[in-house]
């Protein structure tokens, strides 16, 4: 009887009453975040005028839109007030000046290791130079001798074991240099500390217990082999520091990266198990147990915004799965979105928030329908749910993933289907290992060993499917591209409802496999041993990779125009960790590929020069960096930065250019990179004026390798090339481009200066410079991008 009532509810149309309000609140926040605080007041004025006009004219249905207008106004007002308060905070103002500050505040989460990060000079204990990022909610600040109160969030970067031992809820004193950073596209603050933190007030007992559980789990995981060693703490408590960089890259390619850290599905699985166990004691007992589990997991993982978001969405997912009430689950999802946006309006710009909402919507709306279809075809209910849930989540989140990465994971659905049966058992065994670790290490090791084969299966699936030909397909990372993908997806769902449609899809897939697999480019021996520099084939643009000497780790200088192309280049090099991304300037052919570098990789920081034009590119860089919690830092002449075998010295620009043919080009960062003793001059797109300024300043330009400015344009000074005196030149350029790059003048100048080797990505594809037996060697992978038709 209860089943009949549940079916009756699911047969009814979904309750959409709260959905327009949630969307309006989201849009109101977005307007302000994207257009600035003044947009809040313009939005309020326009909406109020529209409401007044509607009240006067009284058209049919006008009253229905009043609540929607109220939500839109609320979103704009709340976000505008918070943005204005943040901009006026004394710590924000001090960060704009890169001032030295003394801060007191509360630790907002467990420390996260910055993989490949750059330690500040003179920091850290001997033998432990690992860098950590700690979220800090500032209470008081002292800048230039003046004290003040503050409420901003600061990302503190500290080096040494004292930072790794911090717990959420502790109050600490820190001192260091502030700098403007970006998170979720918003102006935020980072502080690079030079000394260990000073403890002012200790954490709660619950936080201390959580810390001991996490530490014990890390020790337990050290006894495992393969990918399980890093996956165990990642899956159970969100500690991703031990996950292999290759697994990170392959999980991104195969669409299973949500399993490398705690997500909404983790909350749903654990709460679901608790509900199943306690349901015999009544619904209130089961609900209380689920709520206790949610709170406990938040404490264990750490109260970061992403964790709180995952907890809320996981709770909605549990409601949908265990009540079976699709109609009532959708209002719960809308209410959860409204609550989260009111508490933290910055989430409106968060790709993670969008993915959580969409994935939960797929769970609520599509998964029950598709599970029912499978059950009517004889599939057992449990297996039907197991198949329907990951497919629904993958389908509804594809448009957002495309906007982030510029690619579609062809293997995403099969990968999720293959790992779905082991995720729940692995998580439960891992949680048992975590909870028993502090007081029964042998028992924890036993549970961990049981979980290890399941965790290694997840790693095997990621590694294997990521190696498939065309595992990902490039797709335009634009709103239009996302809209087209939505249309294609909806069309595919409609077609698959028909038998002839399913046969057609099978035929198309087989045809594509037959056509594509034989043409897969395979170059044995790439990259060459001892490579120092690789210029990626990314079309008309620059994307350069510097080897740090640490396997799987590199520095990336510029990212080219296409996320998929630079991502493929890094995958071919086996790069899962990027210590630093340097954006020489903000033109599209140097920055639009940024999502392809960021997604699925650990990134230490993004460095930029003084230029902020084009403004749209600057906003995009901030947003993309913020979504992944990667700090954006400014480079100035004289800065010297080192990581592994790489030493970067910033040479220019000494001043911003005005009135030249291209000020952004001339404002490019110019960096001398020393990689294992080889000097490489990286020049961005500098033109005549910036080249002359370097010569006038007497900069030490002598280099073994020159990255030719501006893709080999004619704006190249002979004296500049002579001063560099390179033996090898590298030109990042697209085949048959509209600019005539590289110019005959530039090529002739290089030849006249005695440059022995000129490497070009348009004719040679990915090109590499390396060292063999003390001598520079070069290699090419072969061009794979076809020249454009005239």
Automatic annotation (TrEMBL):
Subcellular location(s) of the protein: Cell membrane
InterPro entries: ComA-like_MBL, ComEC_N, Competence_DNA_uptake, Metallo-B-lactamas, RibonucZ/Hydroxyglut_hydro
Keyword Cell inner membrane carried by entry: no
GO cellular component terms, A-Z: plasma membrane
Record field: transmembrane: 23-56, 63-81, 256-277, 284-301, 330-347, 353-374, 386-411, 417-437, 444-463, 475-496, 503-523
Alphabetical UniProt keywords: Cell membrane, Membrane, Transmembrane, Transmembrane helix
Superkingdom, natural source: Bacteria
Membrane-topology annotation of the record: Multi-pass membrane protein
Domain Metallo-beta-lactamase: start-end pairs: 540-728
Protein name from the UniProt record: DNA internalization-related competence protein ComEC/Rec2
Record organism: Nakamurella multipartita (strain ATCC 700099 / DSM 44233 / CIP 104796 / JCM 9543 / NBRC 105858 / Y-104) (Microsphaera multipartita)
């Amino acid at each position: 009887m209860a089943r009949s009532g549940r079916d009756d509810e699911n047969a009814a149309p979904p309750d959409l009453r709260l959905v327009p309000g949630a969307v309006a609140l989201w849009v109101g926040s977005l307007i302000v975040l994207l257009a600035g605080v003044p947009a809040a007041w313009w939005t309020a004025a326009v909406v109020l005028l529209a409401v007044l006009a509607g009240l006067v004219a009284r058209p049919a249905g006008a009253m229905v839109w009043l609540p929607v207008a109220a939500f839109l106004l609320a979103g704009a007002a709340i976000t505008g007030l918070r943005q204005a308060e943040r901009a006026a905070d004394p710590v924000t103002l001090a960060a704009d000046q890169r001032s030295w500050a003394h801060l007191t505040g509360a630790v907002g989460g467990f420390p996260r290791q910055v993989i490949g990060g750059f330690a500040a000079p003179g920091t850290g204990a001997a033998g432990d130079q690992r860098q950590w990022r700690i979220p800090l909610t500032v209470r008081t600040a002292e800048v230039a001798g003046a004290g003040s109160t503050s409420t901003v969030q600061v990302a503190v970067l500290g080096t040494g074991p004292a930072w790794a031992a911090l717990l959420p809820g502790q109050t600490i004193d820190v001192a260091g240099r502030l700098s403007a950073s970006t998170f979720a596209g918003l102006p935020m603050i980072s502080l690079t500390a030079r000394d260990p933190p000073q403890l002012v007030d200790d954490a709660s007992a619950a936080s201390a217990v959580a810390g001991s559980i996490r530490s014990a789990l890390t020790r337990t995981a050290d006894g495992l082999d393969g990918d399980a060693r890093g996956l165990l703490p990642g899956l159970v408590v969100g500690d991703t520091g031990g996950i292999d960089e290759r697994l990170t890259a392959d999980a991104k390619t195969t669409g299973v990266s949500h399993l490398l850290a705690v997500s909404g599905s983790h909350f749903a699985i654990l709460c679901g198990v608790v509900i199943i166990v306690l349901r015999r004691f009544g619904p209130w007992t089961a609900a209380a147990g689920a709520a206790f589990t949610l709170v406990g997991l938040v404490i264990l993982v750490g109260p970061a915004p992403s964790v709180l978001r995952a907890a809320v969405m996981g709770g909605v997912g549990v409601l949908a799965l265990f009540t079976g009430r699709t109609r009532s689950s959708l209002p719960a999802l809308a209410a959860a979105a409204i609550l989260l946006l009111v508490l933290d309006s910055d989430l409106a710009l968060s790709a993670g928030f969008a993915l959580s909402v969409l994935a939960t919507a797929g769970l609520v709306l599509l998964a029950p329908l598709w599970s029912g279809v499978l059950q009517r075809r004889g599939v057992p209910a449990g297996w039907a749910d197991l198949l329907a849930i990951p497919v629904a989540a993958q389908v509804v989140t594809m448009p957002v993933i495309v906007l982030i990465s510029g690619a579609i994971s062809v293997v995403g659905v099969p990968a999720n289907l293959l790992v779905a049966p082991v995720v729940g058992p692995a998580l439960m065994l891992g949680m048992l290992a975590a909870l028993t670790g502090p007081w029964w290490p042998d028992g924890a090791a036993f549970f961990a060993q049981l979980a290890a084969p399941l965790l290694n299966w997840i790693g095997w699936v990621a590694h294997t499917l990521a190696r498939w030909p065309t595992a990902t397909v490039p797709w335009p990372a634009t709103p239009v591209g996302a809209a087209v993908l939505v249309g294609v997806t909806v069309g595919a769902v409609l077609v698959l409802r028909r038998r002839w449609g399913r046969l057609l899809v099978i035929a198309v897939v087989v045809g594509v496999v037959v056509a594509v697999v034989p043409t897969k480019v395979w170059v044995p021996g790439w990259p060459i041993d001892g490579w120092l520099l690789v210029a990626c084939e990314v079309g008309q643009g620059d994307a350069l990779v510097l080897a740090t000497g640490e396997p799987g780790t590199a520095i990336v200088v510029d990212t080219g125009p296409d996320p998929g192309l630079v991502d493929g280049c890094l995958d071919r090099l086996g790069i899962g960790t990027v210590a630093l991304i340097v954006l020489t300037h903000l033109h599209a052919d140097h920055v639009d590929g940024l999502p392809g570098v960021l997604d699925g990789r650990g990134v230490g920081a993004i460095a930029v020069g003084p230029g902020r034009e084009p403004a749209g590119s600057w906003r995009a860089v901030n947003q993309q960096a913020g979504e992944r919690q990667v700090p954006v830092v400014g480079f100035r002449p004289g800065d010297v930065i080192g990581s592994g075998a790489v030493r970067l010295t910033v040479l220019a620009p000494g001043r911003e250019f005005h009135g030249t043919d291209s000020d952004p080009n001339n404002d490019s960062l110019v960096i001398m990179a020393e990689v294992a003793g080889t000097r490489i001059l990286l020049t961005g797109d500098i033109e005549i004026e910036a080249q002359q300024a370097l010569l006038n300043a007497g900069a030490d330009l002598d280099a073994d390798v020159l990255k030719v400015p501006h893709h080999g344009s004619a704006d190249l000074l002979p004296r500049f090339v002579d001063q560099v005196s390179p033996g090898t030149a590298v030109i990042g350029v697209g085949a048959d481009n509209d600019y005539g790059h590289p110019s005959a003048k530039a090529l002739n100048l290089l030849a006249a200066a005695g440059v022995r080797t000129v490497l070009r990505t348009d004719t040679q594809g990915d090109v590499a410079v390396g060292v063999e037996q003390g001598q520079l060697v070069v290699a090419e992978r072969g061009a794979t991008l076809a020249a454009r038709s005239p």
